[in-house]
């Protein structure tokens, strides 16, 4: 079982914690993590981009000139794609980019991402995380004491004070165990997770 140090909010080590091999010590599957991240980013796309085709542009109802006898190329409409102001050929249309991967694949990718952070020494475990009201300075001081930049803070339950205290810190993000995802883990420099969150992950993912 991998062992990690446990810190308090002042950045001092207060103990050690053994992590479950089934979650934090699995073989890292980069291909699977890539597939899950691509799926997540596709699901975030709005899919509202659109262009006007020749049926949607204004004008062009009359044939510009007769078919034969002018010496010019035949034209049916001044809104054909080759005309300035004409419709767009094969332009994007509103569509849904989202798709789902199997639940087992998503869970395996999440375990791989967590294991990769532990293996690289980029996971910091806190004994507890409490903030008395929205205080950005308190969280900033904690990150400085722990020597972390662009962290992902993972809590067992949603804490409004922690979220409000973190959201003005550039690069910092807060998530609870239920909404933890591969993209946020890999996109962060370090994962700062509470002991309660570790225990909850071990309950849910084992």
Tell me what the structure shows.
- It is built from seven helices and six strands; from the N terminus they run E-E-H-H-H-E-H-E-H-E-H-E-H.
- With 206 residues, the chain is an alpha/beta fold.
- It has two domains: 3-46 and 100-205, Ribosomal Protein L4, Chain: A; 51-91, no CATH class.
- Helix 5 (160-166) links the parallel strand 4 and strand 5.
- Helix 2 packs across helix 3 (103-119) and helix 4 (136-146) packs across helix 5.
- The model has no long low-confidence stretch (mean pLDDT 92).
Care to count the β-strands? Answer: 6
What ranges have pLDDT less than 50 throughout 5 or more consecutive residues?
A: none
- Give the SSE string: EEHHHEHEHEHEH
CATH class of the largest domain: Alpha Beta
Q: Please summarize the sheet with the most strands.
A: 6 strands, mixed
Q: Roughly what percent helix?
A: 25-40%
The geometry reads as elongated
Mean pLDDT: 92
Rounded to the nearest angstrom, the distance between the terminal CA atoms is 14 Å
CATH architecture of the largest domain: 3-Layer(aba) Sandwich
Rg to the nearest angstrom? 27 Å
Separate helix tally: 7
Relevant CATH superfamily of the largest domain? Ribosomal protein L4/L1
Strand order of the largest sheet: 2-1-3-6-4-5
Beta-strand percent range: 5-15%
How many domains, as an integer? 2
Protein structure class = alpha/beta
| CATH fold-type name of the largest domain | Ribosomal Protein L4, Chain: A
